[in-house]
Amino acid sequence: MRIFKLIGFLGISVLSCAQNYVDVFYSEYTATPQNTFTSSDSTTDLQKLNINLTVPLKLKNGNAIITGVVYDRVDTRLWEYTEKMPVSSYILKLGINLKHSEKWSTTVLLLPKLASRFEDKVGRQDFQFGALGLAKMKKSEHLTYKFGAYANGDKFGPFLVPLFGFYYKKDKLEMDVIIPSYAKINYSIRPKVTVGVNWRATVKSYNLNGPTIRTPANVAQPFYMHHLSNEIAAHIGFEPIKGVIVRGVAGLSLGRSFQVYENDDKIDFGLSLFRFGDDRVQLNTDYDNGLLYRAEIAYRVYLD
How many CA atoms lie within 13 A of 204 on its CB side? Predict the structure, then answer.
């Protein structure tokens, strides 16, 4: 049994649905300066793109059907002496939000995903299936508790993450926390300007399909990439038009890695901070921690 370096950032806007708003559209672009590989002086940069669309369909009984899609792309070098190797994923969100009472509600989501290099025909190895269950209890006008679990059949093995958090909003302060996935603190310094800090962790996996995938030793194998990172950053946000949120983010990525393994090299089970039966052999080297810069834009629908 080993400690997981990091925990998965789910990237699902429904985790934050205790607020009086819904971000129906969210997109971000992340870039880094040159990062040095730990085994040499070779460097690479990194770009990430995420587009998240959520469409809640309200029913007459107060419940809501939740649909949407998430697109994710990562572009970096996996080995010191190879070209960049972009990978992408497409997630379909399909679920329901059930309102049990004025205090209690539950969200259940099915999250089928294709995550791959997409250089060959899409097949079973590109498919993953995830699910999310989240209960919310309104403690007071300002505080809502959230707890549940996220599960996914990742390329590295089955992965389960128990979740607990809260949402707090009073006056100029807003706090949105889901442990162990993310935390965001906002403070309004002016009616349309906010500043704050945020932390989030990422665990994702992608199939590296395609006939040109080879190790530096020129051995062709079916591989997958296990991406982990832990980001802490400061941000400033501006709402130039009601519902349109623009943010600039700068921070540091810790424990960042893009680990490559053979497809059959997996763990037995991952449970939150722990992984069981992990005797995998990593086929590439990581690069150092470093700075990150991110631009975010969202379209927000207010519920009151």
Answer: 26
